């Protein structure tokens, strides 16, 4: 546990060292007295899986430019190392050229698949806009942090988006659309959304947490985790109507099953959603 705490602290420091402040760069574009500028398009942090191949990070030029504009781009290592985890493919010479008709260019990065899972399952580096010609300025999103996630997560059989049509205790039919994602801080923890498809109009659903077993074949969702609150502000929780926790199992054929009944309610025996028949439910990838 002490080793993990130290490791997480190191990662947090690495992320903080290359973090990019998010701001709104488009607010005054085109208004009198404000020049055109370049900025990373979208968020100041993006994530990819290591086996994604060549990925693209767009840079946008906001405002008019009568002549070609050169934008200098660079990569800065952190826990991800150039040549080991990634390679900057384009621009080869570090310069993107915007012609007068161009508004978006992309930085292309080739990701390297590193065999084997390395805890905590992610490394990061930073892309920077270093300089721009033609009298333009650099917008507030002058850098973006790139996270590369390990493709060989020990619970990867569960990670993804899953679907199945079900009929609940009340004979209502639903299309389950469940998303399971790796936790950023714990390799044995998965974040699960969509386990409760619908309850009532003013209900705001919350996801839940599943914990992998030591053999990575099952995920245990502890009953009693909050799913949201009812109109009367009573907590709604995940339940197993038969008692115990909710369990998922890897079927070994790119499907997973929920092998226990599950539902949600505020303490009554049968909640707003309970699936107590047709268990196990086999989920297929979307």
Can you tell me about this structure?
With 286 residues, this protein is mainly β. It folds into 2 domains: 22-149, Immunoglobulin-like, CATH 2.60.40.2030; 160-285, no CATH class. The chain has one helix at residues 2-18; strands spanning 37-40, 45-49, 54-62, 69-77, 86-90, 95-98, 104-111, 122-132, 137-138, 143-149, 160-167, 173-182, 189-193, 208-212, 218-221, 226-229, 235-239, 246-250, 255-258, 262-265, 273-275, 281-285. Strands 11-12-13-14-15-18-19-22 form an 8-stranded antiparallel β-barrel. A hairpin with a 7-residue loop joins strand 20 (262-265) and strand 21. Residues 1-11 and 22-33 have low confidence and may be disordered.
Keywords:
286 residues, Immunoglobulin-like, eight-stranded antiparallel barrel, five-stranded mixed β-sheet
Task: Sum this structure up briefly.
This protein is mostly beta strands and 286 residues long. Helices cover 6% and strands 44% of the residues.
